[in-house]
Each structure stands twice: as structure tokens, then as C-alpha cells.
Write a structure and sequence with these properties.
Blueprint (H helix, E strand, L loop, with lengths): L3 H15 L4 E6 L10 H5 L8 E5 L2 E6 L2 E6 L5 E5 L9 E7 L4 E5 L6 E6 L5 H4 L12 H8 L6 H5 L10 H11 L12 H25 L35 E5 L2 E5 L6
Antiparallel strand pairs: 1-6, 2-3, 3-4, 4-8, 5-7, 6-7, 9-10
The structure holds a DNA duplex (16 and 16 nucleotides).
Amino acid sequence: MPELPEVETTRRGVAPHVINQTLTSIVVRQPKMRWPVPVDVLQSLIGLAVNNVSRRGKYLFLETERGAIVIHLGMSGSLRVLTHYVEPGKHDHIDIGLASGACLRLTDPRRFGSVLWQPVGEELSLISSLGPEPLTDAFNADYLINRSQGRSVAIKQLVMNSHVVVGVGNIYANEALFMAGIDPRKPAGKVSKPKLTRLVAAIKKILSAAIEQGGTTLRDFVDSDGKPGYFAQSLSVYGRAGEPCLVCNKELTEVRMGQRSTVFCSRCQR
DNA sequence: AGTCGCGCCTGGCGGC
DNA sequence: TGCCGCCAGGCGCGAC
């Protein structure tokens, strides 16, 4: 499941093949994704060039002079560049043909992903309501302390809320809370300032390390039909319920929080 | 306004 | 072997 590091790695991998390329064809085989794919608008873009590939949270933007094709990879999506024809498979929903002869192909078995259209000058409300990027200075200790103030929601859910900060999915939330020594169930407003400060640092550290690793494990976005090697990095708690804590050896606990699996060490995280 | 629970979807897995 | 049922999970939305 792509989290922010995978999305950023996708952006970097795809950008050089797409930037300054004119769109020559758009084929939508499956318009039913998270929201209906705006097929007509996409078709009308043929002849325009992609000026830039940017990212906000887990959303990717293929920017043209008229606006941006906004792509979210959901749980199971991937984007890759094909430099020669490859027979589309069952889950290859959209092909974006480029003047170079290459093709940008969106694959998404579970179709939790989405493709939207954002006209130039009109930010989608779902984008404008997003919190700061976790790797910028706007996401700092003071900010998180402020947003946690008086909140009864569990700190894990707060940090996974994209209106608070973008790009922290379930896996990295588990890992960051472990690194910061915080019980994921603790009401956000009751987590101490020093711990929130550590949490901000942990999120930045984990996400940037994952992006760095993504550069090596997910390097090949061209012509590869293999699955990208997500999460090659070692995880301390996620997926390790019942196994010993790497720090204190106590058996890791698993609970469900908002229908998501949450793993933590009840000794190290309080 | 904050919090909670729902639903979208399918590959993979455990159980029989 | 084959089939069935269940689960994961991002995230916007509607309900309280």
C-alpha cells in the first residue's frame, strides 16, 4: 500500500518521462474507481503538454496549462512508464499516451485509488483541506502541540488524520509512535509536549529514511512488470504482534483502532 | 466542531 | 483440490 514515501518515489521515477511530453492518447478501461474517472475531461486534454509532476500528501499532479490530472494510488495503485507496448492486464485501468511513444499506465487492483481533474486556479476542496507536509518546517513541535490541545481522539488517529498532517499512514504511524515511546491509544491532548516533540522528529526521520530507501528499492518505474518492493525497510512493530519488542523483549501488543491494526510495546510506549 | 463508523474493492489466506 | 468467508486498509462522508 503506497504511503507517502512510495508516492514520492513514484513521482521521482515517473517525472523525467512525463515532463514536457505532449499527451497523445488517453484510454480509460475502467472508469469506476474511488470516484468516477472524468473520462471526457481527460480526453479533451489530448494535445496539451505535461509541464510538471508534483505531489501534495499522497496525491500526484500531472500539471497542464489547463489544470492538473490528480491521481491517488489508494491502497493498491501503481503508476509506471512503458516504453513499448505491453498487453494491458485485468487491473490496468488507464493508459496515458505520450508523444515520446511511452505510456504512463495506472494499475490498481482494489480501485481505492482515484483520478480527478483540477482546473487551473481552482483547488479541489479535498486538496485545500489537507494539513502540512510532514517533511517541511510547517510541521513542527509547536504545530502538533497546538493541534493536540484539548483533543480526546487517540494520538495515533490524530496523526493519521490528513487534515492534521498528510502522508502518515497506518504503518508509519505505528512505527513513529514506537520510536517516540508513546502509547498509540493515549488521547492526543494528554500526550506531553516533550513526547509530541519526539513524535514530530520520529515521523520526519521515518518518512525521510523510507524515501531514501524507496530510491533504491523502488527504482525501476520503467518497463518493469514486477511489483514494486514496498516496505523493504525493517519495521520495528508493524506486522510483529506477538513477537518480542526489539528494545525490551516484551511481547508486542495488537489492538484495533478505527478498524486498523495497531501494534505497540506496552512497556516502551506509555 | 469533534468524533465515530461506514463503505468502496479484490487478492490472499485459513479452514473445511 | 476447490470453494467459501474473512480480512486489510486510505480516506471522504454522513450521522450524532
